Amino acid sequence: MRELADAAGRLAATLAERGPLAGIAPDTVAAFLKFGDLVELDAGEALIREGEPATPEIYLLVEGALAVQSKGAQLARLERPGDVVGEAAVVLGSKRTADVLAEAAARVVAVPGTALAKGDHLDVAAGVRSALLRDDWVQY
To answer: Domain 2-132 is in which class?
Structure first.
C-alpha cells in the first residue's frame, strides 16, 4: 500500500513517542510498519470479533477511536495513535478475546505477527507484549 509506505516515517515518529512503542527508534518502527497494510474502517465496523480464531495480524491505531467490548460490556476506548489491539490472540496463540469496533471512521495498520519475530524488530515485539500487561483500561 503506497499510502502507508509514504506515511510510514511520519507515523513511526508519532508511534515512537507514545504507547507500547515509546522509546523505540523511529527508523525501527518505520521498518516494522512497512510489513503492514493500512485498513480503513467505517463507523460501527468490526475489526475483531470475540471468539473467532485469531488472524495473524496485530493492529496499531493510526486515527479514530475503537471500542473494545466483551460479552456486551465496554472494556475500553482506544483513541491514541499507537494503541495496539489484537496482540493477545497473536502472542498467546488463542482465539480473539474481545470485539473491537470502530466508534467512528478509523484507520489502523495491520501488521503480521510474524514481523515481530524478525531480529531487527525485537524491541517492537517487546513493546507489543507489554501491551498485554496494561492495566490502564481493563477491569477484572
So the answer is: mainly beta
